[in-house]
Amino acid sequence: MVQSVQRAARILRELATHGPRLGVTELADRIGVSKPTVHALLQTLEAEGLVRQEKGTSKYLLGMALLRLGNSYLETQELRSHSVAWADTLAERTGEAVWVAVLDDRHILVVHHAFRPRSGVQIPDLGASVPWNTSALGKSLASFLPSQRQRELLEGDLARLTGHSVVDPVVLADQLEAVRQTGYALEDQESTLGEACIASPVFDRSGEPAGAIGVIGPVERLLSKANRQRHAIAVRDVATLLSRELGAGRGVAWRVTD
Fold first, then answer.
1. Which of 38, 45, 91, 239 can bridge 200 by disulfide, Cβ–Cβ 3.0-4.6 Å?
2. Are 189 and 162 in contact (CB under 8 A)?
3. In the chain, where the domains are located
4. Torsion sign over Cα 217, 223, 224, 227
5. Is 213 buried (19+), middle (13-18) or exposed (0-12) by CB count in 10 A?
6. IclR-ED domain: which residues (predicted)?
7. Are 230 and 255 in contact (CB under 8 A)?
8. Is the Cβ–Cβ distance between 5 and 50 less than 8 Å?
9. What is the CA radius of gyration of the chain?
10. How far is Cα of residue 58 from the mean position of the Cα atoms in its chain?
11. Coil, helix or strand for 110?
């Protein structure tokens, strides 16, 4: 492992998670190296456009080059490229916005966002990152991961974003088992008050979960008696078809108990 590259990556992560603005002293304290070393790394990162120094404060922020790198990642993301048409289909079928996400360490990362049809101004959530345990997308993904990886997620830090967030690993384990039975996960105001999500995992040709797709919207609309079951079936159906497009076998089927 190249130490300088590792330190540069840690600087970028610190700016992403604890920024947006951090000075040389703050960064040196956070990553445990000397200020001259951090300053030299920042100068190199700035020359490459990965960070920029704010005029007036002399503190550092993430640079525009990271956006280009992020867009390049999305363009090469196989799940995203295959999911665009299916996400639009699901949005039309349910009348709700659709997220497609992959697992990124202990978070889900939104790689595609299909807007709610025939609605007003909407803000794109592409690139949004949400703790796995507060998201139906994360729970649906975690449900079909290898047992060791699943244990790591359950035994690690569990985020609490609202009073509805589930942080009890026993309760979460029960929820994951339920997803394995029904093929979909529910989220009831666990990441944002007033919002709900219904999501199902998407599998690739290896049979492993490649990501998840789900509908997201106001809780009173999404989880109402009239819509909850209908939306869950729609999400599961589209996830199955998307999985087959990614090469998953016809063994992708749910033991439906709902």
1. 239
2. yes
3. 3-67, 77-245
4. positive
5. buried
6. 65-248
7. no
8. no
9. 20
10. 32
11. strand
Taking only the tens place, the pLDDT of each residue in 51-64 is: 999 887 889 988 88
Model confidence over 49-95: pLDDT tens digits?
Answer: 899 998 878 899 888 887 777 766 665 577 888 899 999 999 999 99
Identify the CATH assignment for 77-245 out of 3.90.550.10, 3.40.120.10, 3.30.450.40, 3.40.50.720: 3.30.450.40
Sign of the Cα pseudo-torsion (210, 215, 217, 221, in order): negative
CB 16 within 8 A of CB 10: no
Torsion of CA 143, 188, 165, 22, to 10 degrees: 100
pTM for this prediction: 0.76
User: How far is the C-alpha of 213 from the C-alpha of 163, rounded, in Å?
Assistant: 25
Q: Which residues of the chain have pLDDT under 50?
A: 255-258
Residue 108: the pLDDT is 93
Res 128: pLDDT? 85
The predicted pLDDT at position 256 comes to 39
Q: Which helix (H) or strand (E) holds 89?
A: helix 78-94
Extended beta strands in the chain, E state:
51-53, 60-62, 97-104, 107-114, 129-131, 185-188, 195-203, 209-218
What burial class does residue 33 get, using C-beta atoms within 10 Å of its C-beta: 0-12 exposed, 13-18 middle, 19+ buried? Answer: middle
Partners of 113 in the β-ladder: 99
